[in-house]
């Protein structure tokens, strides 16, 4: 499990002056975003339109959230993966705790969550998380637009009705001198993910069992991660990256992730423009929610996370020994 600090992880700043479609600056950014997603499956996006204050406020409110009684935390439930509260456990990590706020760009959804955690409500939490979720959703849409433009596709090639699931996660500092797993290695099952963190810990696999830790991210950095369905949409051109959280040092880590969860009935399929003789079709079209639920099914437990998409939707299924 070697850690390689010499590989240069892509950092792309989205400056307002370069965000006018059709300009040279826009086209350059689109190319860099596509290349980062094809090579690494993720990149560090510096986006100053989301203020550092709203992030700092959100992290402070997370510290209040983890202090609420367990019986309230247990009310954060859902039949869908990743949508509810998960406390420290062997299946994930004894260092991990996470909460899920579904449809977090909807004010009422965040407010309903806040009232579960604080019976008298917590208006500051609701306002802050709703604002951050809405802004992260806008950033995700911008990155999607850059991908479609870079491939020369129509904007509606990657348009779907979806809800933004926000997960607020805490990772305890490990025992002194230890280097411990905060979250197991996996590829993401939502379409795409944006993550911001208050302390480094996120690692990505760049080659077989060769990992890099994302360090020195700026206060305006978000990590964009390609999910398995986005890889399928791109006909395998975009990489769905294996990533994990590893903890060291004496400080707890807080992170906030915004996941794209399409509405039920959404079909994932590659645009015809991305299928040709050089790039034959790799994946059958599939229902997103069926795949999302398959990922937590009993048959899926015996398949590596990074192979689930191929097992489920590959035109030529993998053979497992």
TrEMBL record:
Pfam families hit by this protein: 2OG-FeII_Oxy (PF03171), DIOX_N (PF14226)
Cited InterPro entries: DIOX_N, IPNS-like_FE2OG_OXY, IPNS-like_sf, Iron_ascorbate_oxido_reductase, Oxoglu/Fe-dep_dioxygenase_dom
MF terms (GO), sorted A to Z: metal ion binding; oxidoreductase activity
Superkingdom of the source species: Eukaryota
SUPFAM superfamilies given in the database record: Clavaminate synthase-like (SSF51197)
Keywords from the named record: Iron, Metal-binding, Oxidoreductase
Annotated Fe2OG dioxygenase domain residues: 162-262
Protein family per UniProt: Belongs to the iron/ascorbate-dependent oxidoreductase family.
Protein name (Swiss-Prot/TrEMBL): Fe2OG dioxygenase domain-containing protein
Record organism: Gossypium arboreum (Tree cotton)
